[in-house]
Automatic annotation (TrEMBL):
Binds 1 zinc ion per subunit. It comes from the Eukaryota. The lineage of its organism: Eukaryota, Fungi, Dikarya, Basidiomycota, Agaricomycotina. SMART domains: Pro_CA (SM00947). This is Carbonic anhydrase. Its cofactor is Zn(2+). Keywords: Metal-binding, Zinc. One of its GO terms (molecular function) is zinc ion binding. Pfam families: Pro_CA (PF00484).
Amino acid sequence: MVPPLPIELTDYIIDYLHQYVHSESLGACALTCSAWLPAARYHRFRSLTIKSNDDLEEFAALVASSPAIGPIVHKLRAHRPTPECLLSILPSLPSLTELELYDGKFTRGDLKCIATKFTTVRDLYLEACVLPSLDVLADLLVFFPGLESLAISQLLLSPIPYNAAHPAVGLPSLDRLQTVSINAGFAPRDDELERLYSWLIDTLSPDQLETLEIIRYHDPRPLQPLFDAFGPQGIRHLFLELTYINDKAMRTLFTLKPCVNLQTISITLGTPEPPGPTVDLTWINVLISQLNSPFLEMITLSINGRRILKEGDWKFDSIRALDWKSINHTLQQPILKNLRKFEIHGRGPEEPLQECLEQSCPGAYKRGLFRMIGQFSVPSNIDRESSSDGPGKPQREAERLTRTAMSAEFVKANEKYVADFGDKGSLPIPPSKKLAIVTCMDARLNLYALLGVKEGEAHIIRNAGGIAKDALRSIIISQRLLGTREIAVIHHTSCGMISFKTPQLRSLIKESDPSNPAVQAVDEIDFLEFSDLDQSVKDDVAWLKVNPLVLPESQITGWVYDVETGTIRQIV
């Protein structure tokens, strides 16, 4: 009898199919054997896009016949759903946390007949949805009392005046809502947006809104009530994109000064024409001059024609046209003493802008405040449609690679590494010493230094504890495809794998999200902890020696590394 493939290998295959092959292949995997079913279902249904209401009805029928599918779905993206069909399927998705609705039409009568609340939904995104009034939006939000993030793009309201003195009937309790994103797009009437802004002010408490993201065309003045209402006590993170703004008079009627609690701000100016002397950049200087939060730690700046000219960010050379001396004056103000980073997004060579900043902003430049973030590529419309954020979703970083606090550090360190890279690009893929090292992910272990191996000489396979069973997939590939014949297992002192038991960790994870039935899957995970360090090394070596998937001619040794002295000793 042919021995079964290890579950690590089949999971890897299914992961590959999920990333690179059509989802029908996942369906075939689910029907192959019971062992493949969980992973195949997970990848096929965890994040789901449904293009029509007919497809939504078919999926509802599928869940009704196979209830185990429902708890797998965490994200649902539905196009043109009818309220009846949508609200009938949601009770079957108890783990749903993200819901995106496109081109939906909702009326009060559609929503009043449903009494169920969907408490697991944390993020709701509405794009081009048609609502007869803000009362209906309130009725819709009543179904999601656990909502933490609300994103609205090009909401279409009927031309019925909204009277702030008479709030929407059944006004929802949105006590957990902390993030609001509004993409105004090319809204046909500004009164729609103003009514929406007024509705938010009536609905949320002044200190509730922590993150506000606004994409605004033409006239930014209707935004001012939002800043006046939520700026003094809320708004920690502000993402502001202004496009087609060219009226200088508006600058005296629009201000960020009420936002005294800002920790981060991202400013994007969309220009209707390519860089040149006719482009008015004064808006950026005005907005930066209005920053007066003592908590501000990060400013992000971008000038682009992406939405209009499809050219992406300006070149760094063109960004020199800003009045950097004026910006430098603002950066030197004592109230901004906690500012740690000023990110500038652009493309092309950075040197011209670096020289400009060194001359115009010498203090900030010497502090290392400025970070150049190069644009890699602007996704095509097809890429944008298939991305996890959905088409047009107003996430500022959705159209770039994700940037974190460490991104700039990586780029800077890589530049130094490349300078001394030499001929390493010609190294062969198979490791020259035919050695695979299985060790822990612990950040204190520098395997290259403590063992004296160099790039290209050995595979280093790392996981929590350096457990051989957890490394089997990599070991098979290392030996069968890349020619390694020696395995060194290296564990270390003061390892975290000695500090817990699997039942304790399972309980901790389940207690962190008790309302989510999908978290129960942690009961299927063995975290492979150990209590005796030396014995753990011996057990791993013994397991590898008898495993039929490990080549019988392999030389296998076991070691313990002392994190306090830097010494290693051989156990096996």
